[in-house]
Amino acid sequence: MTRRLRLRAFAALHGVLLYAYPRGFRARFADDMQSVFESRLAWALDRGAAASWLFALVSFADLLWGGLVERLAPHPHLSHPRSSLMNWDALRNDVKFSLRLMRRAPLFTALAIAALALGIGATGAIFAVANGVLLRPLPYRDPGRLVMLWSNNTHLATAGADRNPVSPANFLDYKNLSHSFSDAQAMYSFVTNESYVDGGSTDIVTAATVTPGMFALLGRSAAIGRTMQDNEQHVVVLSHAFWKRRYGGDRSVVGRTVTGSGGARSQIIGVMPEDFVFPYKTMLGASGFTTAQATDIWLPLPWSNARLLNAAGGPVRSVHFFAGIARLKPGVTAADAQRDLSQVAAQLAQTYPQTNDGWGATVVPLAQQTVGAIRPALLILLAGVGVVLLIVCANVANLVLSRSLARQRELAVRAAIGASRAQLARQSLVESLSLAIVSGAASVFVFLVSLNALRALAPADTPRINEVGATPGVFGFMALLTLVTGIFVAVLPAVASAKSDPQGALKDGGRGSTTGRSGHRLRGVLVVGELALAVMLTAGAGLLLRSFVAVMNVNPGFAADRLLTLKMSAPPRAQSGLVPFYDELFARIESIPGVVSAGGTTRMPLSSTEVSTKLEIEGIPKAPAELPEVEMRRSIGRFFTAMGIPILQGRDFTAEDRIGAPLVAIVNETLARRLFPNGHAVGSRVRMGPARPDAPWMTIVGVIGDVHHTTLEQAPKPEFYISGRQGPPGSPMLAIRTSGDPGAMAETIQRELRAFDAAMPVYDVKTMDDVRSASVSQRRFLMTLVMLFGGLAVLLAAIGVYGVMALAVSERRAEVGVRVALGATATDILGLVLSQAAALGVIGTGLGLVGALSFAPLMSHQLFGVVPFDPVTFAAVPLILMAVALAATLGPARRAMRVDPTEMLRGG
Amino acid sequence: MPFRPVDALLPLTPIAFEILMALLDEDRHGYAVLQHVEERAGSALPLRTGTLYRALARLMDDALIEQVAGDATDPRRRYYRITALGRETAAAEARRLADQVAAARRHKLLSGSRR
User: Fold this and answer.
1) Fewest CB atoms less than 10 Å from the CB: which of A22, A215, A278, A537?
2) Residue B77: closest CA among chain A residues belongs to which residue?
């Protein structure tokens, strides 16, 4: 956690805890105390994380203790001896007494400890995830000064257009014409699958291609060997994980030569440290990763690389495939850099209108780029688990309160023999704190189990999820939670027992049937609070559930069932003739029993990135910068058939659409509708632009249905397919439709492909159902957890209502007896009890509804297909909670209905 | 505030006495009082914020000190000033302690540790 954040968090908490003191005291000292705390905290922060946690914990404990003492026993006079409340001997006795009480009521104790341990442990686990993902610094030197540089494509109104990759020439100008950066480096805005041959075996690895100065910019050096030097080529740096996996951690691999894709030979120069992750998936462009997670190797991209140069030998300006990373100069903020770079971009747009008109620049702090997208979901989880913890606290406070009221006689006796109110309150406080501390210890177990479960269940593409762990900060946070929980659970009963009237309890003749009015009210308030919080949490869960259902009901535009997908690369022998090779390949696949049809493409929906191109339409001349941008793919074999994508107009590609024949294209519905509003897409001619005037045109021969490509939530974009026979891909993704379970066919198909060509790499074999499921994994994860929290909240609220009503009924037995004696029927009694519960329920759910409605808009970007004020959710949730509250009352109500008036009256 | 004979306020708690001494020479804000007391007393009198402010509250209630307006650097800060009664009380407490120490010397309690 960063220093500034911790300072602010602790300061805010201190501000809240100041309310422990009475109002008059706060009026005189609160501001001053806050100022002193912050000064001392700054001092403690300079001494490290552990020191600051320790300081904060001790200060908070002192604050709460002082506040309680001030409230209960303000000393009227200065010269009184040291506060007897701070007497260690008395405290030790209190602890002993508390432990004895715990042993005497094992069920109560076990329940309370289990509930608190669950609440604290689960909150700690979610906090650990939020801490690891959001708060811990990225694994680079001074990461707060690192920013990402993107181009802002103002021609596109789509999401993410402001984080468009940069062209090499623009990147160089961003770097050289700006004044904000001490250094800037670039990488491909995507990672690539490369073959990696060492000795006899070939691996397919995920490679990030970076300018050689990247490692120096990030401020990280190799664990073994070294990183790249300027203008170095034909070298490779390995990730720690890949090195372990491929070489079993053999340190002598540095210096070896390996063969990459296309036969290029590179020397291994270094292995990065284990904690070095770069790039995170979220640092890549919108068209970034495939499904791969971790980078296996880094390849150098020297500025002399031919891919970066245009025909004239200068850097390319019109093709955008760089992601820039820069380090801010001291004293320069990201906002300053943004202003600076916007000016540079405006200047470039004037100098190179052909390529740069409408292109701005975007500066994003690296941390925001990396985890900004997951942040809202994690904050929702944190809030959700926090609410569960609050409900747990309310429940346990209620239990403690009930018990302390039941023990009023004992307290009265102790008061009668000379214990002061403050001493009784202290005893009660010590009891609750002992309970909390035992729970805190038990919560470590819950925490570790939940953390492991979270890490296992979290979607694999959650950035930094592998860096989540049990750090000292997390344990500090849990210690703090334990303390605050203990105080919360303690303060209410302590205040109640200090206010209780000992003589009244004694006079009562030992029946213990009267409890203080304040005790009643307090329990009612706690249960109302529980119900309100449960409504809020359940409403959130309901909205997420309905969003999830809506997403799953989105028609992806293809038939996802009975579909197997895989990736492959054409083997060396195919280089002489890719088209006949694919003919042979698809014929072979379709001959496998159980395979219905097969085809390939360059971009598979829901599992791969996008690549776009500009399109010129014959007869509609436009300036290069004005040309429409569309997604571009290739189709080979019977791709549309295998995918189940319908052909709406015209025809599919055929064997006649071969090299030499007139060029053809197929477009999707969205493209046809947008670019050919008159419906004349089929037969029109287009070409990828900006093109030379004599470049050949392609005739659109068909219109296919729309497909949700990036995510199910995102609307289909205009898509444009060329025939794989006229431009065969080198590494296609295959779609294979099967007659039965595709997962069961995977083994057979892979075996057949190996038999077909053993040198052909085949990987990422997955059923489309799995692909689709993985594409919503983050949404599912969030929904599942919030629903789990919601369920817990409802259960806890039900227990709370039950507890209060059971107590209320047992206290009102005499009254009920009288009523029955006077002629009240069982139905009357039922009504009496239920109406009391209903009153709690109505107030609780009403408050909860107000709370939920005010918080729902904060969730809006997690919602899909429902509005934040979804009437179904907001009608159903209060009804459910009311029903639960009444159901929880049935048990106590039945007991009330069975009261025997004669017995009650005689006993009274 | 009703008049009270100084002796009725004695003995002062160690913290109250230290606070009064911290304010003898100049007005100080809360943090400065804290630092001064901790510096002088070292670890013998570890001072928590809550303890300090409860002591300040008592001293203010008994009119031994008063709160004065804050300064420009941090408007939240309050300064504390010792009152005439405060000085008188601190002096009385010091005399009382000195009496006790003198008695201790007479009983050779402090022999060999003259400071």
Assistant:
1) A22
2) A32
